[in-house]
Amino acid sequence: MAASSTRPAAGAPLGPGSLLYKYASDLRSLLPGAAAGLMQLMHPGIGAGVAEHSAFFDAPFDRIYRSVPQIWATILAADGERRGHAIRDLHRGIGGVDEHDRRYHALEPETFWWAHATFTWEIFKAAELFRPETLTAEDRRRLYDETVTWYSRYGVSMRPVPVDYAAFQSKFWHICTKDLELTPAAARALDIARYGSDTVSLMPVGGPRLERAGRLFTERPLRLVTFGCLPPIVRERFDIPWSPTDRLRFAALAAAARQGYRIIPTRVNHWTMRNTLRFIGSHTRDQRYQPAA
């Protein structure tokens, strides 16, 4: 798929008054996150990098808790560009050969962009499914341009970035249809989502009692949200179970999230989001990936 080579790095201003800032400050922006993470693992280069350069198979959720606070800070923090460059630099040494003898590197432009593309998709999906208002055509144009600015904060090649939201949708669908595959890391994540695992911790902090409570209240809803948010073509290609009952339950969950927006004050929502990210970030800082010297 062709990508624009003339797209300006700063698509639209990004700050407290922007749509991306508003949506990323909403707790519900994280709801499609497990689906986004699964699609990242289905990318051959990302799946191989995660498998070879992290403890993913022993602690698959730890990657999410380590990464999301850092990535969301590139949107919400005043020094987002500096943080973006730091994330880029963490990936300089992540490369190798996958199980099919294909070379990969985390900073290969299309590979690095795909990780960002899933987060862009996540922001749009959360706004479409879990917020009460409807995105207008102008909202989509403006929000997408802001995600281009977001990507520019990493200081990497802008070559893969589609020129507009329509081109983004086309490229995203093409990759989901043609390029994603069931990497070993993706297969592991799917098994956990389908069947659960008593040996995998869902919580970044807390003892066994908190872990049991988290498993009781999050395991089934997490499975429903993960599979429900996935693009239908991904569910079809990888035989991910999705029944009529699942569709009804997911629709009810999405409706509850939309209604919750009217009940919970925006300031409370945003305060909770900021402090959740800070709490997780502070408790996982010493576990973050450190590149080899």
Helix content: 55-70%
Q: Ends: how far apart?
A: 36 Å
Shape descriptor reads globular
Number of helices: 13
Number of extended strands = 2
Strand order of the largest sheet: 1-2
Secondary-structure element series: HHHHHEEHHHHHHHH
Q: Low-confidence spans: pLDDT under 50, at least 5 residues?
A: 1-5, 213-217
Strand content: under 5%
In terms of structural class, how would the helical and strand content be classed? Answer: mainly alpha
Mean pLDDT: 87
Organism: Actinomadura keratinilytica
InterPro entries: MPAB/Lcp_cat_dom (IPR018713)
Domain ER-bound oxygenase mpaB/mpaB'/Rubber oxygenase catalytic: 22-258
Protein name: Oxygenase MpaB family protein
Structural summary, described in words:
The chain is mainly α and 293 residues long. Helix content is 62%, strand content 2%. The protein is built from 13 helices and 2 strands; from the N terminus they run αααααββαααααααα. It has a two-stranded antiparallel ribbon with strand order 1-2. A hairpin with a 5-residue loop joins strand 1 (95-97) and strand 2 (103-105). The model is unreliable at 1-5 and 213-217 (pLDDT under 50).
